[in-house]
Design brief:
CATH class of the largest domain: Alpha Beta
Number of domains: 2
Strand content: 15-25%
Helix content: 25-40%
Structural class: alpha+beta
CATH architecture of the largest domain: 2-Layer Sandwich
Number of strands: 12
Oligomer: single chain
Mean pLDDT: 79
Shape: globular
Number of helices: 15
Largest sheet: 6 strands, antiparallel
Low-confidence stretches: 1-6, 9-16, 66-73, 80-85, 113-128, 378-384
Length: about 375
């Protein structure tokens, strides 16, 4: 319900606490949403501020603002291009003082006229964030189904809710294995749900070993059949570099995430070039990148990463997959060829954001990647870059 810009919600409203918080930010709300979120005009920018259990979130929607303007002295902003063509920035996990700092900074930033982009260019910009929905399957062991269910429920994740998270037994995992399967997720809120789930399982003393996997589904309905052939061809062309990002047990001939061989890739590409899905049922799902989920769910499943309850590993791997898919979608007539600059050239070429890029390069160094694969002379220099 809208209120006057200078006034609080009605006396006795449960939204009054939100008003007291926002008053401390020094910016008046234009209106309030029923959930207690505040809508503000900060300089030339329309801003939404909403409280969550992990802190305040500042969100900016603008059709006339460039990401480079938003990459100021902020707190790790998350920026992406919405389907409506607006740039959206979110800064999360803020206290009142840091949220005020973000709003004060925004008030000083001019709105910049955005150059109209072609649909192809717009898709390319999506690599700034997570423009695609995703889902995750987390395999683990060491605790019972009941213990995992209780730990997740305490964290706010109900595995009995229809259409939500599911907890299943997994016979492929040693030691009475379990698998936590997410619903379709998106953006920062989806990341936060995965962070919460992993934290809850770690707190309940769940464990992983080399029989566990981390499987991530990415929405790829925009690629169509031809794009799927190019995606598999691109992944396979860079497979030797991608292998350096995962532990040795997840490379090559592992029956749950086996490499595609050249003959299979060419067969799939030929069928996909005709816009045909009939080849999919004759392909094993136990591949580094599995296409069998596309006809039913419109997703591709990246299965190569080993089991983990480490959120940083998950996020970096998720962003890598989305960046590769976005790069393929942005070039509908070509595949991603292995770059001259090795792994570093690949990550730079797909526009992977800096934190994930640095983390994955560090992983490759830790796994013993040679200088040639890393793309520069000194592995220590690569890890620090």
């Amino acid at each position: 319900m809208p209120t006057s810009p200078s006034g609080p919600p009605p006396p006795g409203s449960w939204r009054i606490r939100s008003w007291e918080i926002f008053r401390a930010l020094g910016h008046e709300a234009e209106r309030w949403s029923p959930s207690g979120d505040a809508h503000l005009l900060v300089g030339p920018h329309r801003v939404k501020v909403f409280p969550r259990s992990w802190g305040l979130t500042v969100e900016v929607h603008s059709a006339a603002i460039e990401p480079r303007i938003l990459q100021g002295p902020l707190h790790s902003p998350f920026v992406h291009l919405s389907r409506a063509g607006h740039y959206i920035m979110r800064v999360t996990r803020l206290n009142v003082l840091s949220a005020k700092e973000v709003l004060d900074w925004l008030a000083e930033q001019p709105a910049v006229a955005r150059t109209p982009r072609s649909p192809r260019a717009s898709r390319a910009r999506r690599s700034l964030g997570l423009g695609r929905r995703f889902g995750v399957e987390i395999e683990f062991f060491g605790i019972s189904h009941a213990t995992a269910t209780e730990a997740l429920a305490v964290a706010g994740i109900d595995v009995h809710l229809h259409g939500g998270w599911r907890l299943k037994y997994d016979s492929s995992v040693s030691g009475s294995g379990l698998e936590l399967v997410s619903p379709p997720l998106s953006g920062e809120e989806g990341l936060e749900q995965v962070r919460t789930a992993m934290r809850a399982l770690r707190g309940a003393r769940a464990r992983v070993n080399n029989t566990c996997g981390l499987h991530i589904h990415h929405e790829i309905r925009d690629l169509k059949a031809r794009g799927i052939g190019r995606l598999v061809k691109s992944w396979t062309a860079n497979q030797d570099l991608i292998d350096w990002l995962v532990q040795p047990s997840r490379r090559g001939t592992n029956s749950y995430c086996r490499h595609w061989n050249p003959v299979e890739v060419e067969q799939l590409s030929a069928v996909c070039a005709r816009g045909d899905h009939n080849f999919y049922p004759r392909v094993s799902r136990g591949r580094a990148i599995n296409v069998l989920s596309y006809p039913r769910y419109g997703t591709v499943e990246v299965r190569q990463h080993g089991g983990t309850l480490d959120f940083q590993k998950f996020e970096a791997w998720l962003r890598l997959g989305q960046a590769i898919i976005d790069a393929v979608a942005a070039a509908p007539d070509a595949e991603l060829s292995p770059p001259a600059g090795g792994l570093r050239g690949l990550l730079d070429g797909i526009g992977l954001e800096d934190n994930s890029r640095a983390f994955l390069l560090g992983r490759a160094v830790a796994f013993g990647a040679p200088a040639e694969a890393l793309g520069i002379g000194d592995p220590v220099e690569v890890a620090a870059a």
